[in-house]
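Lab notebook, bench 4. Still working through the backlog of constructs that have no structural model yet. Next entry is a single chain of 253 residues. Request: give me the structure tokens for it.
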Amino acid sequence: MAVIQLRDITKSYGSFNALRGVNLTVREGEVTCVLGDNGAGKSTLIKILAGLHQPTSGELLIDDSPTTFTTPRDAIDAGIATVHQTLAIVDELSVWRNFFLGQELTGRFGRLREDEMKRICAEQLREMGIDIPDVDVDAGNLSGGQRQVVAIARAVYFGARVLILDEPTAALGVKQSGVVLRFVAAARDRGIAVVLVTHNPHHAYLVGDHFTILKLGRQELDAPRADVTLEELTHQMAGGGELEALSHELGRR
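Model written out:
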């Protein structure tokens, strides 16, 4: 089932066209990968989906109904959670405090239900395949992959239907990237729609069900996994045609 549909979305900032007629369908239980280099339009697309910016033209549909997001709260209320590269994780707070940050469980007189929050946090992480033995540890002591996972698990627990992940593996090594990608797959298997924004075709192909490549605001590719190989994805991402032309021009074959 399609949760989000974008139809001929454009976004202009003065004379600069950041997006030029983008079409995208985001479905439950699928990972939709949006790939592109710096300046491709990925960040602009994220901001539109997250309610930070409105498109210049085109249509946004949620559950087949035309929708306008005027604030990030509108996107959150529609079940869209965005995990940005700059994670909203406070290093000096424990894992469980970060998990419930801004949505703490309280009892009489506003007292924190600490034991319950610790238990829920540990259970949710464990169910998603991540074992952090002590959720009392400061988040600053976690690895980059674990920090990403806490942010994603928090969004899942608080009811996200769509997870938008902005370059979640960009600053991670192979092992920690694997932690995050396993978590992405686990979220998909729960029926959540995942939008994975990345410049890494290898990471995208490990978990992706549908692929879109942006280049200078235009869609260069929009295809399901069955119709594209990793080699083709990598070739398109690398600007294969341009590289071949340059190789010919420089006399290298």
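Notes after review: The chain has one domain: 2-249. The chain has a mean pLDDT of 90. Flag for follow-up if needed.
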